[in-house]
UniProtKB/TrEMBL annotation:
Transferase among keywords: yes
GO cellular component: mitochondrion
Matches recorded under Gene3D superfamilies: Vaccinia Virus protein VP39
Protein's UniProt keywords contain Transcription regulation: no
InterPro entries documented for this protein: Methyltransf_25, SAM-dependent_MTases_sf, UbiG_MeTrfase
Keywords, comma-separated and alphabetical: Methyltransferase, S-adenosyl-L-methionine, Transferase, Ubiquinone, Ubiquinone biosynthesis
Identification of the protein by name: Ubiquinone biosynthesis O-methyltransferase, mitochondrial
Length: 280
């Protein structure tokens, strides 16, 4: 019998992930969040330097700026400006750069005014899963249209760092809370069946750790990397998800040492951000 051709790297990584997840499920059939002692030790060790913008998490601090841009733009671009109102604003079906500046500015002012009006009544609630030391959680809690942010993580030391840093800003006191728990332990998740596909949500590129040395060694694991195409395929193929959710936008981003974080035209290169909307 001829030897089988070598599996592609992507296929091998997929098989290794499935085997890893199978071991977790065999260990505890009620838990769907995958973690390990070494991972917890690693992140606990980073707790004391989490908010040092020049420390091991400096690249995460820089990425948060781009991440917030993506979140803000996604929310703004998907607001229904003329829904449930008789006072409609004009939304040009063409590029407004073709218009004279005065007319363009007037239309933009009307659109921004309507967005502000909608967001003032929005009161969004945010769940930050795997919040770490709270870099994203704090940024979201400072948005005027966010009512409440809950950050959850499995690292007790890192959560302690998040709670201590939160105390430095009185604005966050009533808007931001942290809990040591997995996503399936949330009260509102008790009645749901979680897919194993959600257990690993690491969208970091191995290059940043092993080559560029931009993050602490041990932070990223290649076999747990989930490509954005895998998530899209899962939403399409998983029973019931296709009708309930849609991918609104996906953007790739890379870190350039001489520039910083930058969006790319290809979501398959480097890190990526993805917005998924519940449609029913």
């Amino acid at each position: 019998m001829k030897p089988q051709p070598c599996l592609s790297i992507a296929r091998q990584l997929t098989l290794r992930r499935l085997l890893h997840h199978s071991r977790v499920l065999l260990h505890d059939t009620k838990k769907f969040t995958s973690t390990s002692e070494s991972e917890m030790s690693h992140f606990n060790a980073l707790a004391s330097s989490w908010w040092d913008v020049n420390g091991p998490q400096r690249i995460l601090h820089k990425m948060n700026l781009l991440r917030m841009d993506f979140i803000h733009d996604t929310i703004m671009d998907n607001l229904k400006l003329n829904e449930n109102t008789d006072d409609e604003v004009y939304i040009p079906p063409f590029n407004m750069d073709l218009l004279p500046k005065q007319i363009k500015d007037t239309i933009n002012a009307d659109l921004e005014g309507r967005r502000d009006e909608i967001l003032s009544e929005a009161n969004y609630k945010v769940l930050d899963v795997g919040c770490g030391g709270g870099i994203l959680s704090e940024s979201m809690a400072r948005l005027s249209f966010v009512e409440q942010v809950k950050g959850i993580d499995l690292s007790s030391d890192v959560l302690e760092a998040a709670k201590l840093h939160k105390q430095k800003d009185p604005i966050l006191e009533d808007k931001l809370s942290y809990s040591l728990m997995a996503i399936e332990d949330l009260p509102e998740m008790k009645s749901l069946t979680l897919s194993p596909c959600l257990r690993c949500w690491n969208t970091s590129t191995i290059h940043r750790e092993s080559c560029a040395r931009n993050s602490a060694c041990g932070t990223h694991t290649l076999e747990k990397y989930i490509n954005q195409t895998e998530i899209k395929e899962w939403l399409e193929e998983e029973s019931g998800l296709r009708e309930s959710f849609k991918v609104v936008d996906t953007k790739g981003c890379i870190y350039l040492p001489a520039y910083g974080w930058k969006f790319t035209s290809c979501a398959d290169v480097g890190n990526y951000f993805m917005a998924i909307q519940r449609v029913k």
